[in-house]
Structure formats: C-alpha cells, structure tokens
Amino acid sequence: MIEDEADVLIRREVEVNLSDEMRDNLMRVFELSKPEEFKERDNVALELFFTAICEDKWFDEEDRMDTVVRESIDKEPETLDALLARVSTEDYSDQFTKITWSDFMAPFCRRGVLRPEEELIFTRQAIGPQEHKDLSPEELKAILKEKLEMELKTRLVIKQNNVSCLKQPPTQEQAAALKAKGKKHCPAKGKYDVTVPDIPTFLKPERKNKSPSIRERKVALMVQEKLDEEEDHLRTQARANSVPRHVNEPVFERINQSNI
C-alpha cells in the first residue's frame, strides 16, 4: 500500500497542468522562433524564444502572461511570466543557450524539474482560477498550513484503519482474521492508536521505591562531594597580603644622594 501511495505521489509530481490551447500556442511560437535554415532542428535560442512569447499577440491578449500555468507541490501558484523568469535566470543563465521543446516543458511540472528517465504527464487541464490570489502571504501560509494538517489527519485515519485496534493480545480466531486481511496486531493508545513504548525499567514506580544500588550510592556521594567543595570555595574570602617592607624603602633617593 505504501508503494502504491509513493507511485501516486511521484506521478503527481511530473504532471503538467496546461490547457491544449496554451500548449499549442507555446509550440507555435517555438516553431516560429527557429531560423528558416534550421527548421528541422528541435532546439531554439532561449533568448529569441522567450522574447517571441512576450511579443506574441495571443499571449499579450487578456494578460495571458499572468495566467497561472503551474502549481507546485506545496500548492504555490506560478504564472507564465514568473516561470519564464525562473527558467532564464536559474536553469539557463546563458542567454545564448539552445533549449529543446522537452527541456522547456520540464519546468512546467509540479516538481519544477524532471529526473532522468522520467516522462511528463500532460493532464490537458488548466489550473483553475486562484480563489485566494488577493490574500497576503501570511494569510496564504495559514491556509496552506490548514490544508496540510487536514491532509495529514486524513492519512493518519487511513493508516489507523489498516492496523488492528485491539488493546489486548488477539485470540487465535482474531489473529487468523487479521492475517487473512493482511493486517497485524499493534498494541496502541490514543485517538489514532499510536504505538506507545513501555516505560524503561529504571523509571517504573516499583523500581524507584527500592533501595539505591551501589552504583547509585557512589554517584550520589560524588555529587555531594562536588557540592561541598563548591560551598567551600564560595565561603572562602580572599585577603591581600601585607606590603613587603623593602617596597617602602627610599632606594631611589639613596642612589641620588650617593651620586651628588
């Protein structure tokens, strides 16, 4: 089951949510950006291609450059203009770079990049209108947090349904029924039957009431000795020694008097 969920997540990461109209017009501008003598090639100059997209009439109409063409894994929208800026500055910083059609489509997937041997999945459905586009970044983060918490809660419920909720060891009939369903018994507690580990032996109440061991007595004695030593240092008051007598003797004056 975990493997199936992982496959679904990986498939969603390589999805491209572009309408056929948007994709066809991008392909049209891609072909028009090729020089006449290199029409058979599958690459174009990055700068010429992106400039042609910005100057094309179809993309200029109805503010299509501000159309959301990608939604990241974290539900963050990205417009066509922002995606082109990201590709030109992060992925292809050299303006003279040649880009193929497949390389150009890769940043449109939800993950933003395509791993080796992966293929894009075109849903042929455009991303719907953004219902929260007028909200502030803090409000968007709060909405995203709420969605993630709800998704996590749903996953916990799904996992709970695949684990036995028996509080006591199962009988032979119950164990056979669990085995037939591909489930296993897991002693657990709480709303979602989360497994709780046993308390360590040295922390159990019955162990605390027992007399301390030899090791515990030695450790307690060492700690007490350190505390007593620290108390002795705190009680000790430093006192200055008296000034030696030769310090106050006028040696310099004697030398001057002898030189006169």
Keywords:
single chain; 260 residues; mainly alpha; two-stranded parallel ribbon; two-stranded antiparallel ribbon; 6 strands; 7% strand
Q: Over the alpha carbons, how many angstroms does the gyration radius reach? A: 38 Å
Uncertain spans, ≥5 residues at pLDDT below 50?
A: none
Structural class: mainly alpha
Helix content: 40-55%
Q: What's a quick, concise take on this entry?
A:
The protein contains 11 helices and 6 strands. The protein has 260 residues and is mainly α.
Structure description:
This protein is mainly alpha-helical. Among the domains are: 121 residues, no CATH class; 32 residues. The strands form 3 sheets. A two-stranded parallel ribbon has the order 1-6. It has a two-stranded antiparallel ribbon with strand order 2-5. The radius of gyration is 38 Å and the shape is flat.
SSE order and pairing:
Layout: H1 2-13, E1 15-16, H2 20-32, E2 43-45, H3 46-55, H4 57-60, E3 68-71, E4 77-79, H5 80-91, E5 98-100, H6 101-105, E6 121-122, H7 137-161, H8 172-180, H9 205-208, H10 214-235, H11 251-259
